């Protein structure tokens, strides 16, 4: 796939994952072609790739739509994550390298500064950094099979865009939980890392399914 299709794919992927494109929204090829200044082929290639990754559904005679996630979908993904990622956090506490720990500390500091400054796209940046933190924990577990399974779940559109639903209080709590998690990993306290990650994921699910107003 050529560069124009890559650019359209990356732009649409970000818009879907950050909530700019809502679940069920119709992705009209002609509109996308005009918006991105490309021909029809790159748009179709990008939409096909998004469909392969579960971000878009393509319906015969109707076109492409942003994939919809139901509460049952969210519950299923979070229940699996709540089984896998606490185990990964415990392994990370036992196996992490100093370099990985420093990266986790850096991500926490970046997220806290991002929340403090609150630029116009700060929720998008928080979502990106949150994904990086969870991925780094999975990498630190040093379990390739666990990583390949769990990392795919963290990329689910509803998961990546979850910060769009958070109130200020919920954001603060999430960032504190990240600090507690990284502190446990730093202390090589596997039991605490497991418990913090499990509580963090369960709280995230409650936030996504019953969002609080700002």
TrEMBL record:
- Its protein name is GntR family transcriptional regulator
**SMART domains noted in UniProt:** FCD, HTH_GNTR
Q: What are the coiled-coil residue ranges?
A: none
Q: Provide the alphabetized UniProt keywords.
A: DNA-binding, Transcription, Transcription regulation
Tell me which residues make up the HTH gntR-type domain.
2-69
Q: Which InterPro entries match?
A: GntR_C (IPR011711), TF_FadR/GntR_C (IPR008920), Tscrpt_reg_HTH_GntR (IPR000524), WH-like_DNA-bd_sf (IPR036388), WH_DNA-bd_sf (IPR036390)
